[in-house]
Amino acid sequence: MSSPVVFIDGDQGTTGLQIHERLRQRTDIRLFTLPAAERKDPRRRAEAINACDIAILCLPDAAAREAVGAIVNPAVRVIDASSAHRTQPGWTYGFPEMAPGQAEQIANASRVTNPGCYPTGAVGLLRPLAQAGLIPADYPVSIHAVSGYSGRGRAGVEEYEGPGAANAPSYQVYGLQLAHKHAPEIQLHAGLAQRPIFVPAYGAFRQGIVLTVPLALRQLAPGVDGATLHDCLARHYAEATHVKVLPLNESGALTHLDPQALNGTNDMRLGVFHNVENGHVLLAAVFDNLGKGASGAAVQNLDLMLRR
């Protein structure tokens, strides 16, 4: 039996390059990409995607929809790394640790949509707590996140590593219209009744994310405290390979969070920080925006799909 053919469409962007790097030495698959002269040829792209077993789309949203629309071979399975299908019916959300049975759903799916990098942290923190009823579905959730500049793709890398790098800002908050495309994805998959306030930022480092969600205990169910929230997350991820929850005594000893701490891995670290006197809790996630937030997640999903 021949090895499955995996076609990467859009392998020149930051996510596509990292996926290619992670897969190129593997012998259990046949990796295929188009030569430079054929990448923008709709006919060749359609031929390639219909000839593969699994296609990984690392494309802008419109191009990803076009690629999926070109599929006529019912045997072709897709992992879409764009945001085009993350809230669309018929697509399986590619966050294996999100819920019991999610990894199995991904393994059997024909259409898998990779989570966004920021939503990976936000959904990872919020969904187990919302499903357990510890955070009310209508809680006014606010999320702040800082990512490495590679989160902007090639434009971000060029700004910070190109000829004008000396003029690149050390830190920039964006999404000030509060209309970021990740907010509906977070709301849907975290199980929130209201759109969260999401404030993202870029720092002057290549990759890595710290994402935080502040909570006021007075707005939660009676008796819920930091330990309750921590125990829920710890139980949810007890068997997860790539998501770990810091013990409360370890998080209590920390004085800062390094967004680059897990760079180069497909891991995510969650923490619960609480101030009993003030009744405040801070949920936090640290992970690599190009690892668990993008290419690492795509490869994890690919491995699950190859089991079938």
From TrEMBL:
Which reaction is catalysed here? N-acetyl-L-glutamate 5-semialdehyde + phosphate + NADP(+) = N-acetyl-L-glutamyl 5-phosphate + NADPH + H(+)
**Domain annotation Semialdehyde dehydrogenase NAD-binding: ranges:** 5-106
Q: Name one GO molecular function term.
A: NAD binding
Q: Which GO terms describe its cellular component?
A: cytoplasm
> Is S-adenosyl-L-methionine among the key words of this record?
no
UniProt keywords, alphabetically: Amino-acid biosynthesis, Arginine biosynthesis, Cytoplasm, NADP, Oxidoreductase
Q: In which pathway does it act?
A: Amino-acid biosynthesis; L-arginine biosynthesis; N(2)-acetyl-L-ornithine from L-glutamate: step 3/4
- Give the top-level enzyme category: oxidoreductase
Entry EC number(s): 1.2.1.38
Q: Can you say where in the cell this protein is located?
A: Cytoplasm
> Which InterPro entries does this entry report, sorted A to Z?
AGPR, AGPR_dimerisation_dom, AGPR_type-2, NAD(P)-bd_dom_sf, Semialdehyde_DH_NAD-bd
- Active site as annotated: C117
Q: Which SMART domains match?
A: Semialdhyde_dh
The GO biological-process annotations, alphabetized, read as: L-arginine biosynthetic process
This chain's function reads: Catalyzes the NADPH-dependent reduction of N-acetyl-5-glutamyl phosphate to yield N-acetyl-L-glutamate 5-semialdehyde.
**Entry similarity comment:** Belongs to the NAGSA dehydrogenase family. Type 2 subfamily.
- Its name, as the record gives it, is N-acetyl-gamma-glutamyl-phosphate reductase
